[in-house]
Design brief:
- By secondary structure, the chain is α+β, with helices and mostly antiparallel strands.
- The chain is built from three helices and twelve strands.
- A twelve-stranded mixed β-sheet has the order 7-8-9-10-11-1-2-3-4-5-6-12, with helices on one face.
């Protein structure tokens, strides 16, 4: 991050003389994968995997591109209640859709509270497996799914082409470190809380494969000591709800 300050004329002349005598430190090329950024990502993943339970609220914004190329932004929220390794409740609310998800270690239920339809599918034994299977088998996108993959062998760290430490920042009143990463077709930024609880406080994802480069952002608020009861993760269909079959993705439809 460049900080521009006003400089007195005499100080500027002295600085110029110094630059002639020795090249500035920032003239050296930065490493493509800054070790500090990669270590911060690994430490965050390790801490996330240590959490036995948490709640998380994400205030989200997503760009959609109209046929004329104009970008429209939609706001929303995601609310997670998680008990590792095999209990999850997720409520998604935005301008386009409302969805509730219940996972109990055996099944995943998706419920649309507006239309009153729900579908139940068999699910794998852990949340990390669930977020991948939901996408690959049923084309169900679990928001912020990387939160359950960081710190595992599915984290995708090897896919990162560049990693940079941008600088300190404050998100929601918390002191954070700001990092930027680049992978094939996507740039993403993350703000990680400083100290003993390296939680992600904000994420911004930019899709490079589209000319308009739409973005998804989420500001995250955490509670790492929640209390749940058994009913939290159990779906009880309302009397007027109707069950429908879940459509599986055909092998050729998902690349």
């Amino acid at each position: 991050m460049l900080m521009i300050r006003s400089i007195q004329t005499t100080a500027a002349a002295a600085a110029l003389a110094f630059l002639v005598a020795a090249p500035p430190a920032f003239a050296q090329p930065a490493p493509e994968r800054d070790p500090k950024a990669m270590e911060a990502l690994s430490a965050m993943g390790k801490y996330l995997r240590s959490l036995k339970a948490f709640t998380l609220r994400g205030d989200t914004a997503i760009d959609e591109v109209l046929d004329n190329g104009q970008k429209i932004q939609f706001g929303g929220t995601v609310d997670y209640r998680v008990q590792q390794p095999d209990r999850l409740r997720l409520d998604v609310r935005n301008e386009r859709r409302w969805r509730d998800f219940y996972y109990d270690g055996r099944t995943l239920t998706q419920y649309g509270p507006r239309a009153k339809y729900y579908a139940v599918v068999g699910a794998p034994a852990t949340i990390a497996e669930l977020v991948q299977a939901a996408d690959q088998k049923y084309d169900i996108e679990i928001p912020l799914a990387d939160l359950f993959l960081w710190g595992t062998d599915k984290s995708g760290l090897d896919d990162i082409k560049s990693a940079s430490f941008i600088g300190p920042a404050q998100i929601g009143g918390k002191d954070c470190d700001h990092f930027a990463f680049r992978q094939e077709g996507v740039d993403w930024q993350i703000w990680i809380q400083q100290g003993k609880q390296p939680l992600p406080c904000k994420m911004v994802i930019t899709t490079l494969s589209e000319p308009s480069q739409p973005q998804y952002s989420a500001v995250l608020s955490w509670n790492v000591a929640p209390k749940f009861d058994k009913s939290t993760f159990t779906f009880v269909p309302p009397k007027d709800a109707k069950q429908i079959p879940a459509a599986q993705v055909q092998p050729a439809a998902k690349k």
